[in-house]
Write a structure and sequence with these properties.
The strands form two sheets. The protein has a seven-stranded parallel β-sheet, with helices on both faces. A six-stranded mixed β-sheet has the order 2-1-3-4-5-13, sandwiched between helices. The chain folds into two domains: 135 residues, 3-Layer(aba) Sandwich (Rossmann fold), CATH 3.40.50.720; 182 residues, 3-Layer(aba) Sandwich (Rossmann fold). By secondary structure, the chain is an alpha/beta fold. Helix 4 links the parallel strand 3 and strand 4.
């Protein structure tokens, strides 16, 4: 008899997470209940709670009593993009139930967008495009104060997780010098990547292009603040691709408006951005409406990772493609302020 998987992925669409082949592979592993592109009635979950093996949900909500009833449950997989309130994580840990996040599945599309924003920002493509519309373009003009090449450049990452690692892989043909600030990592964690771990002051002062790619926690709120922005070189490009939580957003946009730096932004403190928000008119800023992963098939790696991990769990094999929750990190993540948004990555 197949294991039973309850899928309550709404607000996500099933086709957003799984290719046709990926969903067929999931159905070959498990009896899938749900997967409709609408919220699952709670009575459906309750009817199957005692014999479900897996729960895949945008916002998993199980308390300790629920988990006591779910005697066959092996894993809870969230598909919103980050660990959510509403699940009793400690009860999961106590009962040996794995809790997995789909966050790693975004890395390919998001890293691709980050590199695109880096090239556009470094070479002034958006600025010259807008100047061209008004007849103010600069033909064959070098602009060393604002424009630069990525070849051999000093690149810095705030956070060196999945997005940063994939971004670094895509940048390797440019032969950059890469540094990263990530207090959760040691030299042995990055030895194979050929990067330098450094403190935040060195990172912001030496990077001509700085990519903000860390996941939000309660400890990194506005990690890039006024002090760090002041330490940046004139002409630094800052790419904000993970969460605006990590930057003093107003100070960053103000520095761009003053002409000290250039900023490319895909994520904002409040989404959608208000029609009268000053950022819409700020100079030296490239704006993207939180769509780094919003491309056809861009989230299908999530479905592939779910299939891989469920297959491994069923045969008792170690190794997970998705991000595993653990007691040391989960509270830091849950305490992080949440973006006021109507959509997620």
């Amino acid at each position: 008899m197949k294991s039973k998987l309850i899928m309550d992925q709404h607000f996500r669409k099933r086709e957003e997470l799984f290719s046709a082949a990926g969903f067929d592979a999931l159905c070959a592993l498990c009896d899938v209940i749900g997967g409709e592109n609408q919220p699952m009635p709670q009575d459906v979950l309750r009817a199957h709670i005692e014999d479900m093996t897996f729960l895949v949900a945008a916002k998993p909500a199980l308390d300790r009593d629920d988990l006591e009833r779910a005697g066959n449950l092996k894993a809870v997989i969230e598909v919103s993009g980050t660990f959510q309130e509403g699940l009793d994580y400690q009860a999961c840990f106590d009962r040996g139930i794995e809790v997995l996040s789909c966050a790693p599945g975004f890395k390919y599309a998001v890293a691709e967008m980050a590199v695109g924003m880096m090239i556009a920002g470094a070479r002034g493509l958006v600025q010259e495009h807008e100047a061209f519309r008004t007849g103010a373009e600069d033909w064959l003009q070098d602009k060393p104060a604002t424009d630069f090449t990525l070849y051999g450049q000093e690149i810095g990452f705030v956070g060196y997780g999945g997005i940063a690692r994939e971004c670094h892989r895509l940048l390797k043909p440019f032969s950059p010098t890469v540094r990263a600030f990530d207090p959760w990592l040691g030299p042995h964690d990055v030895a194979a990547d050929g990067i330098q771990l450094c403190d935040l002051e060195e990172l912001v002062s030496k990077s001509r292009c700085l990519v903000v790619a860390a996941s939000p926690t309660d400890e990194n709120w506005q990690l890039i603040g006024k002090r760090e922005i002041a330490q940046m070189q004139t002409g630094t490009l800052v790419v904000v691709i993970s969460r605006s939580h990590l930057v003093d957003f107003d100070a960053l946009v103000r520095a761009a408006s003053d002409g000290r730096i250039r900023v490319a932004i895909d994520v904002f403190p409040s989404e959608p951005v208000a029609p009268d928000d000053p950022v819409r008119a700020a100079p030296n800023v490239i704006l993207s409406p939180h769509r780094a992963a919003a491309v056809d098939g861009g989230r299908h790696p999530i479905g592939d990772m779910i299939v891989d991990d469920i297959g491994n769990i069923l045969v008792g094999r170690k190794g997970r493609s998705l991000q595993a929750a653990n007691p040391d990190s989960i509270q830091r993540i849950l305490r992080a302020p949440r973006v006021r948004a109507q959509h997620s990555a």
